[in-house]
């Protein structure tokens, strides 16, 4: 019998009900229920005990989805504000409650936070490398469409200036941004015709950026585009694949030189195609904007874990973890101090500045008790911290632990 195809995705019901979990958490709950131990009160913390090589910080995102997941359950949730830059070994979230009420949600919680945080962190690194120049995220072709809005959101929160995904942009209350695909030129069979039609059909608010590497050399097509659209041309995009690229910096230099000597200095250059922060840094003095997809959509993982650190009010943890609940205090220079939960710190041990606690209550017995900022506000928080990381070299200051 011919089998009917389906989408292999978990819907909101499966996620919210706890069905989207690992079987061993269901087995643990069944055992605890059997001996009436599911009501055991615990404190569990989300943290990372190590970052990818070369990473000194990460950007905490995904919190809003965790709030959605835990809302209505009899648990308390404390967390760093979404968009907070954090360091290894710092708790980013704290859940208090009966283990039986939230234990089965551990995979979903970590999946939401770990995936989003990894994408946001990579986006932030690329945005820093771009030195203030625009970064467009268009990596949804790299991922399953069911989660494309989540990845768009995480990339935007991390610092990308815009996203190309329509569904993600709608959820973020943004205008999707993009140029044109090679398919347009290939279907029409004429790049000049494609550029002209793009100009004639698209509304005025869409920048006229011509894709210039479909049939001929980038330098040749860039000049053709400038001569075809004249002053209406905002920019050209080079999407040269690595298999044909050679030295991309020299290609960009050729394009810039050719445009300039023919009187087209107004035409900007956007580069895309297999870029990461290293490529962006190498091109930033020549290029006016970057399109980045795969490296942000498939970033190195920020390995977050959820571990019990207290049981019935007493410190407890598995080996390799620090037992007992913890709070993180931060000064305006992004120096962090980690202390036992409940201890009050007023001054930074590094610079002497005033500090404030980062983990703040979000849920009380399942009820939301704090505002959830929108994506634009979170992104601004991220960009402000990135600026401080660079200007004050705060990235070299790891957290200070005071037991």
UniProtKB/TrEMBL annotation:
One of its GO terms (biological process) is NAD+ biosynthetic process. Residues 22-116 form the Quinolinate phosphoribosyl transferase N-terminal domain. It is an enzyme of class 6 (ligase). InterPro entries: Aldolase_TIM, NAPRTase-like, NAPRTase_arc-type, Nicotinate_pribotase-like_C, Quinolinate_PRibosylTase_N_sf, Quinolinate_PRibosylTrfase_C, Quinolinate_PRibosylTrfase_N. Gene3D superfamilies: Aldolase class I, Quinolinate phosphoribosyl transferase, N-terminal domain. Residues 119-307 form the Quinolinate phosphoribosyl transferase C-terminal domain. CDD domains: NAPRTase_B (cd01571). The keyword DNA damage does not apply. This is Nicotinate phosphoribosyltransferase.
